[in-house]
Each structure stands twice: as structure tokens, then as C-alpha cells.
């Protein structure tokens, strides 16, 4: 079988991948050398896709909740009839505003298109919103204000032409690794290319930056207003461009002068030194080719839209847009956030970059769709939508491919809303998620690798997602489910689709319709005549694609014309706002949330990969050592993080990489993977007043020790039953290679460690080898369960977390066909007889290289550079995501105590 070319399902870089069947029937996943987004490169998440294709936990058949609360398998007919009748009844009784869809940036464009069409054109409600609201809706609103359309002007190729990359609120090294590596490769070729990072945290991205500005959270508008004023004061305005192609410059400059006219004042507001601030301003001023790449640190704010416009203003004032190597660049978090924007899958837009608020646009789309009614006003944005569910105003909701009980702010309220909602339909690939628990009807969705469709990455490049796996059970693509429901509601004529191809060409036709009357950036009319075979073979292409045979458009606004009524770009006057809630005596810290390098969203896919789980295996809070001391928490111990909205219990990682009074907690853990680590429950639901994007980066919080009587862990070939987990105070589950790892902690010591250990491991058969040691006085217990020559499970508990053995060597025993005598000797100690066998926690996930191996190479084998480590151990030679950590180890290894190694 030839390799199947498809697209990575994770971040907005949109890397091309090739899936080929290996001799043992599994699939090898590799980067597609022909794909222009990545030219064969993949980050560790993409490279590990082959480990995530198993069917464990998959939802394979429709399920319907029964009166007693249990679930029964149903036929598609039964499930779809239930959905169609439920939505129809509620619309008839309460009107179209009583129903809603909540969809996802993980959906292919075709699925998104059909869902949006059903909601806006046939239900007649704007109530379809998406998890992309949480990711880039501020960028969308900022683009519309500045350019008249939601347009991303630049492309990845621009990194090869630029001389300055400013990364704002973006840990690009971890969240968009292939783009980051592209920037570094360009820098290696042209060392004069400078990289500036603007971020309150010292992230991995900062390691290779020429300048890091650790701004105080929420002060970006100060900083960019300051830049705008400084450029103006120093006569660095591109007057010709401003006069010919923009409007609003005078007003924007006036506001910037008022708020950012003094460098000293701006530096104070941003918590920066004047020298550093001026260094940045001078760098920006003297570099004509600048890309300002921004992401969640800008967007996820109660002033996100203003932040976006403050950045765009600086590019417009200096004419740094529409030219190779220059422009503002909103990089999207999700694989198809851009496709969702194309189809209008936000409650605030209509379709094909036409607007709900414009009567002529509505008329056009209604005619095109042949719909009986069309939504005539924007629907409820994500946070408001779930509030409406909570208040009973929305009575039926269909959630597709997303997990709002984990990902939305004030997530406990979201959970409560769903538990009270009259009809909750969830289509998903997984049966057990924090959200599927509340579904009345569960619809099994085809997953990545099983479905056909397209997605659009951050640089407007449409790529095919192709199937290379059979669809398991009775799973179906979401476009099919929506089509079936629409037909059952009497809309068969408008929903004739039998394939993703048919949906795509309709979407392409709509994008091209009335472009003469209503010109807009999104136009793929050139793809509207694709035959099924041409759709199958479609090569990645950047929109606009206005005619057949057009090769796509790398960069927008090259002619200086924009999509506003005047065809001029707008500089928008923006005032700095403090974040909605300030820290106070009760909540003195600022909680920032975000992603980590090797996980994605709520881990339903990445959580299956042992490789990905090994880097940062547990939920954690990162805190400055000084604040840790003030809060009374200790590195490696548990702490309770609380806000006015909720609390979680996570491991402390003390690090000077976070600013004082800031803490960081990752977003990935949920009730399936940890007892108490859903950080969404802690986040203030305040949103940007224009975009509705929540402020995930700034919730006042406090931290306190979470005292327990013992700590422990289990490594076991079989998952522990929930009843076993219910018996411990705190747990976190990690997927290992042929085993599960559980980190545990408890209040109240078991009376009988022996009985406790056996019960925890499911009371293994008496004939099995059961090795055990305990010290009641010390509160220490260790046991191992061996069957034949293989280890089945081991459990370690201790009063002191520091007394527990490292997990790496024990984990390695699970891949051995049989235990050696030396392994058995080391088993209850938890360490190998030969210390060289202990590799330490993983640093390089691609090649599974542990910290201790790296430190030994540095200290004992003379590896003194990243290249030398790569040559010796291969670490850092694939995706490069671990290079910042390798550099840090190279810098610190000589100073570490020998005992660490
Ligand atoms: Fe996938 Fe993003 Fe990694 Fe590319 S950079 S392989 S799109 S997760």
C-alpha cells in the first residue's frame, strides 16, 4: 500500500503526514516531505500519532441514556430519530433560540459547514459556537476591525524573508514546534534574523531568543501603544503607506501618545526596564521586515481584541504588511480553527466570511442554501451559551468533538448546566469523557485517520485529511450525522450530501458567490468544480483561490487594498485595560493556564502515547521559588490551587522561569486522568466584550500545601478499577509502555498495608509471586506482583515523597520478556543494581532519552553542546522540541550535585 498523505490533527501549523502500513499491520507516521507547511518535519506529537490509533476507550455504537441513568446501545435510526424529534419539539415549543450546537476546531471543514448550515439556515438560530472561541476569536475580531475581513496576511514562507520575529504571548517552541524550528533554521542560515519573545514566563521559546521581555500579564496594549507612540515621535511612520492605504492613524496615535507616550511610564506599567523596552522599540523601528506572531497570551484576555489591534496598528503605521517577511501573524491553536472561520462556525458570523448582521449577506446566503429561515442576529458565544443552558434558556445542545466540561472557564458551572439540560447530544470518538457523562444521546464519530475532509492551517492553507484506517464499529463522520438529522427534520432537499466531497464543493461555490457585489478575502471558487477524484488528490493550497487553475495566494494585501468599505486598513485607537480581576490579599497570585509540549487538549488522543506521557507525566503548578516559600508549598509536593471559582490539587514545580506572583497550570488533565486537576474549573469566566474570548491567563489565585499522610505509585499492566482509585485521596494516571502508572497520595494510613496493597492491585491470585516489604514505623510499603518471569504490577508507598524510587527503571521492566535475577533483587528497592540502567525522567520524547543519561554524557563523556549530545544520544535531532531543555542541562550539569546523577 502506498503511503496515504493526510494532515496532523493537532495544532494550527497543519503539518502534512504520511501514513504507511508496516509489516506488522501497524502504521508508521512520518512527515510529508512535499507538504509546504512542514517539508517532512513533525514535532513529537505528530511523530507519535501511530501510538494513538488503538481503539481503547472508543465509542463504537450510538448509546441512549435510559430512565434509570444507565445507557443502552441503539441503532443509528433510533438515535438520530431521538435527536431530530428532540430538537424539533424544543424549537416548536420554545423557538429556535432554545437550541444550540457547540462544535470544535478539530472538525474537518465539511463537518463544520454542514453543522453551521443546519443551525443558521434551518434551525434559524445563531446559536452555534465553537471551542475556537476559546482560542482565536479575539484575533478574528481584531482582523475584522483592521482589515474588514478575518484575514491572516502572512504565510510561513515569510519566516524565510523576515529579519525580526516578535513572538507575543506564544510558547511557540512547545505549542507550534514545527514553525518554531523553521524560525530557528532561518536564523541559523541568517544569524542577523533576531527573535524577541514577549511573555511573562521564561518559556522554552525564550531559550533561543535574542531578547526576552517578561511583561507583566495583561499589559500588551501598554507595550504596543508605547511602540506606536515612539515610532511616531521618532518620525518612523511610513507616511506614503499610511496616507494611501489606511485610516484612523491620527486617532490611534493620539490615544497611544496619551497612554504610551512616555517610555518610562510604559516600562513601569509593563514591569520592564526602560533599557529592554527601548532595545525592542529600536529593533522594531530599524527592521523593515518584521513578523509579529501572536497566540493565546494575546487572545485569551478580557482585552484580547484591543491587544490584537495594538499589534496590527504598529504594522500599519510602518507599512509592514503585504510584503515578503512582514506582517502580524495570528497563529491558531487548533488544526482547523481557520476552516471553522471560513464556514462561519462562530456564533458571530454567517458563512463564507459573510456577516449575520448584514441583511444583504443574509439574503444571499439564504437564497444560496434555499433555507426557510435564517438567523438574523448573532448567537450566544461559548461562555454565554453555557450560561443560557444553565438558566434553561437553551434546552437542547449538540456538542461535537469537544469537551467543554474540561475546557471552558468556570467549568463546574458548565458541568452543572449539562446535568440539568433537557437534551444533551454528544458526538465524539471517545465513550468516557468528562462531557459524554452528561449525554442523553451519544453518537460515535469517525476519528482522524478514518474520515475524509479538509482543514485549513494558520497560513490559510487547505489540506486534505484522508482516511487510511477502516471506520470501527458503526462510527460515522459528523457531516453524515448532521445530514441525517436534517433530513429527519424535513430538510432533505438542502442536505443531499453523500460524501465529504459534495459538501466541500458547495462550500467552495458559496465562497465565490457574489464576490463582485461583496468582495471578501475568502474565495475558493476555483475549487468549486473539483471532481471526486480531484478532491481526493487535492494538493495543499492557500486561499484565496478565485479561479480554476489558480495556484493559491501566499500573502494578502500586496496591493494595499483591504476589505473595508473604503478599501483602507483601519488603525484602531485602543486604551490599555487592566485584567478584569486584580489579585488581592485573599488571592494574591495570578493563575495562567496553557499547554505543555507533549500533550494536546484533554489528552483523549495524546494521552494514549507512552512517549508523550513521559515528558511531564503529572498535573502541576509552576511557581516561583520565592512564592513557593511564601505559600508554604514545596517543590515535588502537592498543593491546592484555588480561585473564587474552584480548586484543584496538583504537584508543585518550583521554577524561576515564572515571574513572581504568577503561577502556571496546564490545561490537559481532567477527571479521566486525575482525581482533581481540571484547571478550567478555576478560571474566571470573564470574557473580552467584543470577541467573547475568556481570560484564561489571569485569574487571581492562592496556593496552599495539600497535606497527605503518604505518597505512592503503582505501575500495573492492567488499569486499576475506579473503586481502587476512590480509596485514595489523590491520584493521577499516566499511560506507560505496556503498563499504567498511577501517582497516588492519601490521608489516613491504611491499617493493614498488605491488605491495602493487594486490594489496590485487584487481589492477585494467591499462587502469584508476591514480593513485599513494609516498615510500619516509617510508613513505608513496597510490593511487587510477578507472574512467571514477568512483572505484573508493583506498588510503592512512603510517608515522604522523596523516599520513593524513581519510576524510569521500574517502568522499563514492563517491556522485558522476562526478569533477570538482578532485576528481582532491585525490584523492592526500586533501583537497579547497576545505576547506569537508570535513565531518569524523559527529556527527548522522540528517542526516549532520559535526563540521567544526558547528564552522564555531559559529565563523563565530554558532550559539551547540543550537537554533541545529538551525535552521541540522538536527543534533539528529530523535532527539536527538547533542545531548550538540553541547553539548560548543559548549562547546569557542572553545578549539579553528583547525587542527582
Ligand atoms: Fe502536528 Fe502541530 Fe506538531 Fe505539526 S507542529 S506535527 S501540526 S502538532
Considering the chains and any ligands shown, give keywords for the structure.
alpha/beta, 7-stranded mixed sheet, 6-stranded mixed β-barrel, 18% strand, disordered C terminus, binds iron/sulfur cluster
Quick structural summary:
By secondary structure, the protein is an alpha/beta fold.
Low-confidence stretches: 897-901
Terminal Cα span? 46 Å
Shape: globular
In the sheet with the most strands, the strands line up as 5-4-16-15-14-6-7
Bound molecules: iron/sulfur cluster
Please count the helical segments.
30
Number of strands: 34
Rg result: 27 Å
Main structural class: alpha/beta
| Range of strand content | 15-25%
Could you describe the largest sheet, including whether it forms a barrel?
7 strands, mixed
| Percent helix range | 25-40%
Q: Please state the oligomeric state of the protein chains shown.
A: single chain
What is the average of the pLDDT values? 93
Amino acid at each position: 500500500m502506498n503511503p496515504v498523505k493526510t494532515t496532523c490533527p493537532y495544532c494550527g501549523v497543519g503539518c502534512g503526514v504520511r501514513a504507511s502500513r508496516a509489516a506488522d499491520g501497524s502504521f508508521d507516521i512520518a512527515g510529508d516531505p512535499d507538504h509546504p507547511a512542514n517539508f517532512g518535519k513533525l514535532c513529537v506529537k505528530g511523530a507519535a500519532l501511530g501510538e494513538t490509533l488503538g481503539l481503547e476507550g472508543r465509542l463504537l455504537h450510538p448509546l441512549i441514556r435510559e430512565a434509570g441513568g444507565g445507557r443502552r446501545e441503539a441503532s443509528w435510526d433510533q438515535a438520530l430519530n431521538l435527536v431530530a424529534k428532540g430538537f424539533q419539539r424544543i424549537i416548536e415549543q420554545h423557538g429556535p433560540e432554545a437550541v444550540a450546537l457547540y462544535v470544535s476546531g478539530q472538525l474537518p471543514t465539511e463537518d463544520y459547514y454542514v453543522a453551521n448550515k443546519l443551525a443558521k439556515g434551518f434551525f434559524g438560530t445563531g446559536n452555534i459556537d465553537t471551542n475556537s472561541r476559546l482560542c482565536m476569536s479575539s484575533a478574528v475580531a481584531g482582523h475584522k476591525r483592521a482589515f474588514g475581513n478575518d484575514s491572516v496576511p502572512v504565510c510561513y514562507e515569510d519566516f524565510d524573508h523576515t529579519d525580526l520575529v516578535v513572538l507575543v504571548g506564544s510558547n511557540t517552541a512547545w505549542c507550534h514546534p514545527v514553525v518554531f524550528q523553521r524560525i530557528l533554521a532561518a536564523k541559523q542560515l541568517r544569524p542577523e534574523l533576531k527573535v524577541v519573545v514577549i511573555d511573562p514566563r521564561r518559556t522554552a521559546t525564550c531559550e533561543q531568543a535574542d531578547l526576552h521581555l517578561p511583561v507583566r500579564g495583561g499589559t500588551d496594549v501598554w507595550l504596543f501603544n508605547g511602540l506606536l507612540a515612539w515610532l511616531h515621535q521618532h518620525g518612523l511612520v511610513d507616511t506614503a503607506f499610511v496616507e494611501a492605504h489606511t485610516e484612523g492613524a491620527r486617532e490611534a496615535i493620539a490615544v497611544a501618545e496619551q497612554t504610551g507616550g512616555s517610555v518610562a511610564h510604559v516600562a513601569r506599567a509593563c514591569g520592564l526596564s526602560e533599557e529592554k523596552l527601548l532595545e525592542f522599540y529600536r529593533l522594531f523601528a530599524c527592521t523593515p521586515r518584521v513578523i509579529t506572531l501572536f497566540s493565546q497570551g494575546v487572545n485569551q484576555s478580557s482585552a484580547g481584541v484591543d491587544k490584537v489591534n495594538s499589534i496590527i496598528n504598529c504594522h500599519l503605521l510602518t507599512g509592514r504588511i503585504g510584503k515578503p517577511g512582514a506582517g502580524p501573524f495570528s497563529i491558531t491553536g487548533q488544526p482547523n480553527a481557520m476552516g471553522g472561520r471560513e464556514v462561519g462556525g462562530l456564533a458571530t458570523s454567517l458563512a463564507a466570511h459573510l456577516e449575520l448582521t448584514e441583511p444583504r449577506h443574509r439574503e444571499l446566503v439564504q437564497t444560496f442554501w434555499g433555507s426557510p429561515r435564517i438567523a438574523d442576529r448573532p448567537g450566544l458565544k461559548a461562555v454565554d451559551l453555557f450560561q443560557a443552558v444553565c438558566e434553561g434558556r437553551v434546552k437542547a445542545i449538540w456538542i461535537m468533538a469537544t469537551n467543554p466540561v474540561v475546557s471552558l472557564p468556570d467549568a463546574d458551572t458548565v458541568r452543572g448546566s449539562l446535568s440539568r439540560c433537557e437534551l444533551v447530544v454528544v458526538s465524539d470518538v471517545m465513550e468516557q469523557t468528562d462531557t459524554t457523562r452528561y449525554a442523553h444521546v451519544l453518537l460515535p464519530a469517525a476519528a482522524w485517520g478514518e474520515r475524509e475532509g479538509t482543514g485549513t492551517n494558520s497560513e490559510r492553507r487547505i489540506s486534505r485529511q484522508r482516511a487510511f484506517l477502516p471506520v470501527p464499529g458503526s462510527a460515522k463522520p459528523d457531516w453524515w450525522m448532521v445530514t441525517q438529522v436534517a433530513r429527519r427534520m424535513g430538510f432533505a432537499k438542502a442536505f443531499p450530501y453523500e460524501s465529504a466531497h459534495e459538501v466541500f464543493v458547495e462550500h467552495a461555490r458559496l465562497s465565490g458567490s457574489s464576490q463582485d457585489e461583496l468582495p471578501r478575502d475568502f474565495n475558493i471558487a476555483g475549487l468549486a468544480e473539483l471532481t471526486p477524484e480531484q478532491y481526493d488528490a487535492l494538493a495543499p493550497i492557500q486561499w484565496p483561490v478565485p479561479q480554476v487553475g489558480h495556484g493559491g495566494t501566499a500573502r494578502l494585501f500586496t496591493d494595499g487594498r483591504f476589505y473595508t468599505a473604503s478599501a483602507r486598513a483601519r488603525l484602531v485607537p485602543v486604551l490599555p485595560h487592566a485584567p478584569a480581576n486584580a489579585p488581592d490579599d485573599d488571592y494574591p497570585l495570578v493563575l495562567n493556564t496553557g499547554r505543555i509540549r507533549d500533550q494536546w487538549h484533554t489528552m483523549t488522543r495524546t494521552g494514549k502515547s507512552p512517549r508523550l506521557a513521559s515528558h511531564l507525566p503529572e498535573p502541576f503548578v509552576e511557581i516561583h521559588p520565592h512564592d513557593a516559600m511564601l505559600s508554604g508549598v514545596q517543590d515535588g509536593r502537592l498543593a491546592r490551587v484555588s480561585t473564587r471559582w474552584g480548586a484543584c490539587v496538583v504537584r508543585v514545580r518550583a521554577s524561576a522561569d515564572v515571574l513572581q506572583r504568577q503561577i502556571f497550570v496546564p490545561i490537559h488533565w481532567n477527571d479521566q486522568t486525575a482525581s482533581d486537576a481540571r484547571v478550567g474549573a478555576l478560571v474566571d469566566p470573564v470574557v473580552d466584550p467584543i470577541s467573547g474570548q475568556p481570560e484564561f491567563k489571569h485569574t487571581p489565585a492562592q496556593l496552599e500545601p495539600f497535606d497527605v499522610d503518604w505518597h505512592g505509585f503503582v505501575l500495573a499492566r492492567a488499569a486499576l478499577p475506579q473503586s481502587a482509585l476512590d480509596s485514595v485521596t489523590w491520584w493521577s494516571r499516566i499511560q506507560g509502555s505496556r503498563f499504567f502508572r498511577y501517582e497516588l497520595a492519601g490521608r489516613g494510613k491504611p491499617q493493614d498495608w498488605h491488605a491495602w496493597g493487594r486490594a489496590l492491585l485487584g487481589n492477585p491470585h494467591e499462587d502469584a509471586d508476591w514480593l513485599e516489604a513494609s516498615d510500619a514505623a516509617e510508613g513505608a510499603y513496597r510490593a511487587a506482583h510477578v507472574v512467571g518471569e514477568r512483572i505484573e504490577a508493583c506498588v510503592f508507598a512512603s510517608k515522604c515523597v522523596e523516599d520513593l524510587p524513581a519510576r524510569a527503571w521500574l517502568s522499563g521492566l514492563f517491556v522485558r520478556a522476562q526478569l533477570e535475577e538482578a532485576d528481582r533483587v532491585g525490584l523492592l528497592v526500586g533501583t537497579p543494581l547497576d545505576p547506569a540502567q537508570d535513565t531518569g525522567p524523559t527529556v527527548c520524547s522522540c528517542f526516549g532519552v532520559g535526563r540521567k543519561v544526558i547528564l552522564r554524557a555531559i559529565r563523563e563523556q565530554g558532550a559539551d553542546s547540543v550537537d554533541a549530545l545529538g551525535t552521541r544520544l540522538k536527543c534533539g535531532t528529530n523535532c527539536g522540541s527538547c533542545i531548550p531543555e538540553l541547553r539548560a542541562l548543559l548549562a547546569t550539569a557542572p553545578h549539579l550535585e553528583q547525587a542527582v546523577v
